[in-house]
């Protein structure tokens, strides 16, 4: 058995950790009940009854949650210097920003809009930061950089795939407005490690997927 065990739900944030391990070529165990989200969550509750969240990872004696933190701990312990730019690299600040933007800003905004728009279909975009704005920020960055880590693929790309899939799959934005995001996704999905991760983490595709919105707010002004 590996020292690393990933507790997993198909098609959720734990995909990131499976993908990370495939990119690194490190051994890991994957715990989930195929096609049974409640059964998979029961495994997590048995391990972490106070905060049963996915991903949860057991690394030796430590129980880890929060996908960004899990990635950082696993790299530091098992693959230092891999899949992230050096601290002295000009790409390092952007890499670190996107590592945290994925959940701290993007997922928070996307799911806030999704919940609200499921109840009341929208008629206009917020004049503040909304789901289209957070995707536009990513689109603009990709106009000048091939990856969210800058010049090279990094764990920032692993973090950003989930929210950008949410934005388009749940119809929060019009994906045709974001061609650079689409190109980036195509590069990601062509990676051999990503394909291996899908085969292990989603053997039956998406399970229990959230329904897409019937409509999203119309596109706002684009700078």
What would you note in describing this structure?
By secondary structure, the protein is α+β, with helices and mostly antiparallel strands. It has a domain at 92-191: Glutathione S-transferase Yfyf (Class Pi), Chain A, domain 2, CATH 1.20.1050. Helix content is 49%, strand content 7%. It has eight helices and four strands; from the N terminus they run βαβαββαααααα. The chain has a four-stranded mixed sheet with strand order 2-1-3-4. The radius of gyration is 18 Å and the shape is globular. The model has no long low-confidence stretch (mean pLDDT 93).
The CA-CA distance between the termini, in Å, is 52 Å
CATH class of the domain at 92-191 reads: Mainly Alpha
Instruction: List SSEs in N-to-C order.
Output: EHEHEEHHHHHH
CATH topology descriptor of the domain at 92-191: Glutathione S-transferase Yfyf (Class Pi), Chain A, domain 2
**Poorly predicted runs of 5 or more residues:** none
* Secondary structure category: alpha+beta
The biggest beta sheet reads: 4 strands, mixed
Mean pLDDT: 93
Q: So what's the overall shape?
A: globular
Which terms summarize this structure?
223 residues; alpha+beta; four-stranded mixed β-sheet; 49% helix; globular
Secondary structure topology:
Elements lengths: L3 E4 L7 H10 L4 E3 L5 H11 L8 E4 L2 E4 L1 H12 L13 H28 L11 H12 L12 H15 L9 H11 L2 H10 L22
Parallel strand pairs: 1-2
Antiparallel strand pairs: 1-3, 3-4
Helix pairs in contact: 1-8, 4-6, 5-7
